[in-house]
Amino acid sequence: MNGQLLAGKTAVVTGAASGMGKAIAKLFAEQGASVVLADLNKEAAEKVAQELPEGKALPVQTDVSDDQSVAAMIQQTVSTFGSVDVLVNCAGVPQAFTPIEELSLEQWDRTLNVNTKSIFLTARHAVPHMKAGNKGSIINIASIAGIRARPGLNAYCASKGAAIMLSKALAIELAPFKIRVNVINPGPAETPMLGKFINGDEAEVEAGKKDIFISSVPLGTLIQPEDIAQAALYLASDLSKIVTGEVMNVDGGRGI
Ligand SMILES: NC(=O)c1ccc[n+]([C@@H]2O[C@H](COP(=O)([O-])OP(=O)(O)OC[C@H]3O[C@@H](n4cnc5c(N)ncnc54)[C@H](O)[C@@H]3O)[C@@H](O)[C@H]2O)c1
């Protein structure tokens, strides 16, 4: 492998202010991409942008569940860098374990809006630009929870299962335009999100990480954000030029 894998490409990464999105943005920039860091958290996105090579990063405050906000972000991407070649939908919200009868309508809607509707919204605004260039790679970060349920993660599992099937539907629809759509299912990962799946005080959260999450991973450790970034790099680059509609579990074997 010679040179940078994403030289000359423009990548939009949602949720780029933290965790996996941040690791993806950094690796993509190292590999030559211009990166748009689209996140609700403006300050954190700006901080990540400062860690990237000058001129290669554009932080844009975005609510991925809001159509107008997504439209403005894609518009800014194209007016700044000229194209959208890669789109990574990584922004997401967790759900603390909740019995179904206690789950509020607001929580259901928010989970589905941020984790699933966002894929529809980013696609509807980015795809016309990808079609114009007759190329593109869309990578949706779903979850192993989208294929393997846990008790009390009802809305979250539903949001990720829908994200996986929406990705496959887009993969078959967009294949004639050479736009590839793939999914990464992370297993339990060491990011700020992980503890938020657990209800309880700090000690209970730490115990839960060990008892619930680490113990469920056959390889015996939590997934690192960089593990997800490496998989995203493969799917974003021409190394995977014949791969579409694929669901890649990056999960230490949790999905077996
Ligand atoms: N951490 C895990 O164990 C785990 C496991 C499987 C899948 N995932 C998924 O991986 C993705 C990344 O998660 P992470 O662990 O890096 O989480 P994180 O909490 O570290 O980062 C999530 C980012 O999304 C942003 N965000 C939230 N709502 C947003 C909105 N409406 N608009 C724009 N940005 C918004 C947050 O500001 C944050 O920067 C998520 O989709 C998550 O569901 C995480």
Automatic annotation (TrEMBL):
Superkingdom per UniProt: Bacteria
Pfam families: adh_short_C2 (PF13561)
GO molecular function: oxidoreductase activity
Biological process per Gene Ontology, one example term: bile acid metabolic process
Gene3D superfamilies: NAD(P)-binding Rossmann-like Domain
UniProt keyword annotations, A-Z: Oxidoreductase
Similarity field: Belongs to the short-chain dehydrogenases/reductases (SDR) family.
Protein name as catalogued: SDR family oxidoreductase
